[in-house]
Amino acid sequence: KHFIFLGAPGVGKGTQAQRLAQLIRLPHVSTGDMLRASVQSGSAIGVRAAAVMESGALVSDEIIIGIVAERLLLADAAAGVVFDGFPRTIHQANALDDLLAGRGDQIAAVLHIELADEEIVERLSGRRVCATCGAIYHVRYHPPAVEGICDVCGGGLLQREDDQPAVIRKRLAVYQAETEPLIAYYHDRSAYHLVSGEGEADEVFSRIVKAVGVAR
Ligand code: AP5
Ligand code: ZN
Fold first, then answer.
1. Distance of CA 89 to CAs 64, 80, 134, Å?
2. Could you tell me which residues come within 8 angstroms of residue 36 by beta carbon, excluding any fewer than 6 positions away?
3. Which of 57, 137, 139, 184 has a CA positioned 20 to 30 A from the CA of residue 163?
4. pLDDT value at residue 72
5. How many CA atoms lie within 13 A of 54 on its CB side?
6. Beta-carbon neighbour count of residue 115 at 10 Å?
7. pTM for the full predicted model
8. What is the pLDDT of residue 190?
9. What is the ipTM score, two decimals?
10. What residues are paired with 113 via a beta bridge?
11. Which UniProt keywords are present, listed alphabetically (predicted)?
12. Would you say the CB of residue 134 lies under 6 angstroms from ligand 1?
């Protein structure tokens, strides 16, 4: 009953995970969003994570597994969650399997979104995010009705610190080295689905809905 989005930075995991979570009424659990909230609040985890995230490297497995384990204890996670950006290392995937086994839970689907690197760079360099509610925009592909203002909540839009060209390249390299091995980890499980991230967000979402077999 848990859903996992796997794929390089910028393929559209956040965009699609938010939509799927809304459709099937499960919480959207983005470790990136949780870490950014910790950085903003200045918590101990935020202080440890800030410089790592700005450099494009991965935050330690120990911190990530801790925040995910804690998140799964909240009442709204009982029926399952839509993970976005987790797991990202083999160690995290093993830890998730253990956590789920302990709860008698299963992975409903692993959605691996694939997109060419040029397209990824294009998408990330034009991304804007709402500082208040986390809604995701793009200056060309998904602009808000009023420039700089969130359609959903009226909050201000920001460019993420790690969406600069040098950091984007570093994140892509980190993905290849540390996260790509997860494809082999999940590939032979029945819940694995490879989904093309090309085309409009609506088209990609249709592919996902079809893969997981839920009605829209
Ligand atoms: P995280 O926040 O997870 O970032 P990421 O994986 O780099 O993914 P992104 O958010 O960049 O991209 P996305 O695939 O969600 O794309 P989006 O939908 O926004 O992680 C950030 C950092 O936190 C990491 O570097 C690491 O330091 C740390 N961290 C997080 N989790 C961790 C973990 N588990 N372990 C260790 N460290 C961790 O779309 C991108 C853009 O494209 C947007 O502008 C969007 O509007 C646009 N777009 C989307 N779909 C389409 C489409 N179909 N057509 C045109 N444009 C589109
Ligand atoms: Zn907003």
1. 10, 21, 24
2. 53
3. 184
4. 98
5. 8
6. 20
7. 0.95
8. 80
9. 0.97
10. 195
11. Kinase, Transferase
12. no
